[in-house]
Write a structure and sequence with these properties.
This protein is mostly beta strands. The protein has two domains: about 55 residues, no CATH class; about 150 residues, Cathepsin D, subunit A, domain 1 (Beta Barrel). Helices cover about 10% and strands about 30% of the residues. The chain is built from two helices and 16 strands. This is Nucleoid DNA-binding protein-like. Keywords: DNA-binding, Hydrolase, Protease.
Length: about 200
């Protein structure tokens, strides 16, 4: 675990670089993850996305109640070509410091507030029909599917797109949130619910 927050004890605060950047690649990727400081933390050239797509950015937001965390202004979520019916206000930071969306490389799941989670889950279940969703009480995930689909079923799993303030649209494959396990292979949706705020894994950004 590497402390990259704004707190006084974090590695970033103690080293004091003018800026830093990191890219956590998929555990299935042969490419190594990278952590850059100072002049090496650029958003162009060799440190830019290997996909060749234009670099996108969104402003960080300060939450006075949790000043060490990196909050962002999320405006909406799409699955495939469908923008989900989610009120953008559900992503806002409340006066008491609850709510909001922040990125956390130390959490094992992406956590969404209940209304957001329900909207994403409903659409995912609808898209993946006729696969029956099931709960996995062993590790506490409620949205799991038998995988792969039967040979007679053609299934397309949509990508997820996060829409941020400033016009940044971060597209990532939904398979980065679906994890297959077991000899009978169950695909589990690695997103759960949290009442106080939404927490995003950096792998999906």
């Amino acid at each position: 675990m590497v402390g990259l927050g704004r707190g006084l004890l974090s590695l970033v605060s103690q080293l004091g670089p003018s800026r830093f950047s990191y890219c956590l690649t998929s555990f299935l990727s042969p490419e190594p993850s990278r952590l850059n400081f100072g002049v090496f933390a650029t958003l162009n050239g060799t440190n830019a996305s290997s996909s060749g797509l234009p670099v996108q950015s969104t402003p960080l937001v300060v939450n006075a109640a949790l000043p060490s965390l990196y909050f962002m202004s999320l405006k909406g979520i799409s699955l495939g070509q469908k923008r989900l019916p989610i009120d953008p206000l559900v992503f806002a930071i409340n006066d008491d410091g609850t709510g909001g969306v922040f990125i956390d490389s130390g959490t094992s799941l992406t956590w969404l507030q209940q209304d957001v989670y329900d909207a994403v889950r409903r659409e995912l279940v609808s898209v993946l029909r006729p696969l029956p969703p099931a709960n996995d009480t062993e590790i506490g995930l409620e949205t799991c599917f038998p995988w792969p689909p039967p040979p007679t079923v053609t299934m397309t799993v949509p990508d997820m797109e996060l829409h941020f303030d400033g016009g940044a649209n971060m597209l990532h494959p939904i398979l980065s949130l679906l994890f297959c396990r077991g000899s009978t292979t169950v695909s589990q949706y690695h997103v759960s619910t949290y009442d106080l705020c939404s927490i995003l894994l950096p792998q999906i950004l």
